Amino acid sequence: MPLDREHCVRAVRSKDARFDGWFFTAVLTTRIYCRPSCPVVPPKPENMTFYPSAAACQNAGFRACKRCRPDTSPGSPEWNARADLVARAMRLIADGVVDREGVPGLAARLGYSTRQVERQLLAELGAGPLALARAQRAQTARLLIETTALPMAEIAFAAGFASVRAFNDTVREVFALSPSELRARAPKGGAGTPGVLSLRLPFRAPLNPSNLFGHLAATAVPGVEEWRDGAYRRTLRLPYGHGIAALAPRPDHIACRLTLSDLRDLTVAISRCRRLLDLDADPLAVDGHLRTDPSLAPLVDQGPGRRVPRTVDEAEFAVRAVLGQQVSTAAARTHAARLVTAHGKPLDDPEGGLTHLFPSPEALAAVDPETLAMPRTRRTTFATLVRELADGRLHLGVEADWAEARARLLALPGFGPWTVDVIAMRALGDPDAFLPTDLGIRRAAKELGLPATPAALTARAETWRPWRSYAVQYLWATDSHPINFLPA
């Protein structure tokens, strides 16, 4: 968002939590930076300056506030709502690419030169990719310091630092405390089972958990996902190993319990859980826009804060979308469960009933299509998709160019607008995908007096842009849709 000084000052004076993560307030007299909703007495306007990222604050020599902990603000909604170079770069940085592959690896994934990527990030965010990744490493280090009993040397490398010295220097610089002092200030009792972390995932209120967790629970693939003890649980394929995430809705946060085989995967696991639940969305902006339509306004008022259930693995979701073509939710789960049992990687889950990682594209590319219990045309669609994914010709990850990915999907046999838009909405994260041919959407449109034909409904939905993916969630809520519930 453009940093208009007058609006920023007004947000800070009113302690408006809606702007947490949109910008950061740096205080010139104390050299401390805060989130807009910081509970301390606001500084004088002449002592405030504003930055678009925590990394920019740190680059300018400001330390994180110990009261409001700005490093734990929800992420900016822009990075999940935009598809340009900067947004794609930020999604990749959040996914830990700079720590694993360096800035050259980041640039290569984006298809730009290192210099172009650095220049654009610096111009918009006031910090380059290394500084942005360093700020993220500091946040990960703090989380490990405060929630585990790991030795500091192990935390340093798990957080992505190249040396213990760099870890110590960064923690002191960012938090004005040494690592041991941070641990001493943390609430007692945080240490638990090795490799298991409990944390809180913040979000912008309101959040409607019904559609979000109801959808994930109702479409859960046995062995990979489950609803247990009030939490959605699923397995995670991660860069250094595997993990299990347990996510439960709370009034002001999502309770997240991560079991990781390698703690170096912590940053990417958090990023993927946040993306799965669409936690960086700005529901007030979305709902405010959709309320301007008289047909949608009552739906928004009845259950504001609906999110778009997304995915932790874009390739997995594309495969599942093909398995779900023209069949019921139950049948799609059955097909996916058979693939998991036959080709997924087994793992242990002492706390529940999860048994496998979803098969990788490489594993699925080796499957004989004739062994699949589905129509021949869909077997061809499945085989073509997994080959494209396994060979790297089709990219659906956080770095994907949305328009290019759509075009490549439409060029594959058996991919029509419904399948492509479902993948765009749930896997690519396009906030403006729309499903005018979906049976649930057409039934909802008829009930609300909206146009019934796909072409007319698409024309009517032009006023809902750029948030048509969220309009889909509200429309589904009007139907006796089998996924619109929150399990008991």
UniProtKB/TrEMBL annotation:
Pfam families: Ada_Zn_binding, AlkA_N, HhH-GPD, HTH_18. One of its GO terms (biological process) is base-excision repair, AP site formation. Gene3D superfamilies: DNA Methylphosphotriester Repair Domain, DNA-3-methyladenine glycosylase AlkA, N-terminal domain, Helix-hairpin-Helix base-excision DNA repair enzymes (C-terminal), Homeodomain-like, Hypothetical protein, domain 2. PANTHER family: DNA-3-METHYLADENINE GLYCOSYLASE, DNA-3-METHYLADENINE GLYCOSYLASE 2. The methylation of Alka by methylphosphotriesters in DNA leads to its activation as a transcriptional regulator that activates the transcription of its own gene and other alkylation resistance genes. Is involved in the adaptive response to alkylation damage in DNA caused by alkylating agents. Repairs the Sp diastereomer of DNA methylphosphotriester lesions by a direct and irreversible transfer of the methyl group to one of its own cysteine residues. Also catalyzes the hydrolysis of the deoxyribose N-glycosidic bond to excise 3-methyladenine, 3-methylguanine, 7-methylguanine, O2-methylthymine, and O2-methylcytosine from the damaged DNA polymer formed by alkylation lesions. In the C-terminal section; belongs to the alkylbase DNA glycosidase AlkA family. This is Probable bifunctional transcriptional activator/DNA repair enzyme AlkA. It comes from Streptomyces argyrophylli.
